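Final report, closing paragraph on structural work. Over the funding period we assembled a curated collection of sequence-structure pairs, and we close with a single example.
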Amino acid sequence: MKNFILTAFVFVPFLLSAQDKGSNISTYITPFAGVIFQGEVNTEQTGTAHKLGHFNIYDTDFDLQVSVKGTSKSTVGFTYGLTYGSVWNKEGRKLSPGFEIDVFHTSASHASELSNPLNEEVTGIVGVNGDSVVDFVDEHYKAGHHTFSNTMTRNSWNAATNFTLSYDISSKISVNGALGVGFAAISLKEAESLQVSPASANAEYETTNENGGGPVNHFNSQPNASNNLMTAQFRLGTKIQLTKKAALKIDARGIYQERGNFTFGSTQYTDHAPTDNWSYIIDGGFTYMITAGFCISL
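Its predicted structure, as stored:
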């Protein structure tokens, strides 16, 4: 929030310079809706599984340090929101600066495939069969053999402050651009993390008897996570005047979101090794939006 406020002040000199003699301020609100396109981003998942002796054939306790990496899939979602803005107009001037505040919501699915780039690490061995445990992990959890399939719903509430420029092509049509910074309150909900390999015998995923032999959701104790992240955005679009007070606005937006770390709950099943909480990292990346709205002059 501090960075958000400080950045807003960066735009103030540009806006004050627009308030010369002969200029007037017009304000407006624009409710809008549209579609979003979420591109591929790098993902990472880490955690510790406590492999207790009664869960394995060696009667030896040990910890498995899980570290898998991958990429998310491209997805399509939706957005809706509201823009409040002001523009400094001057008779005879085609290029006009302005200032806007965006508040909007986005929603899309999120899915990723991850695997271990290196052999998984064994720590905390307690028992007489330590060498056998290490050999077992080296064989079954070697690089590329520990894989996960993750799915969840990704929602966010976003706010941004923007410096804008509009250029009048005619009395009815203008081209508009904006550059801004803000933050996103992101929530990941109903997350599932399924281990594809190693899997139970004759099963597509690692399974548990607690749900009748269905897949183990490694986030089962807490499938929701959230984080607040800084964002930057740019926008390019057009405004078509329909009446004196109303106009149609169509915009293409690009929003960059910084790298975020989300914490999900531990794996808790009676027939599965317990784990610590899971850390899930989504790398920084762009979300693209196409929006349309009605600009209403106040």
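The longest strand covers residues 173-197. The helical segments are 2-17, 130-140. We thank the funder for supporting this effort.
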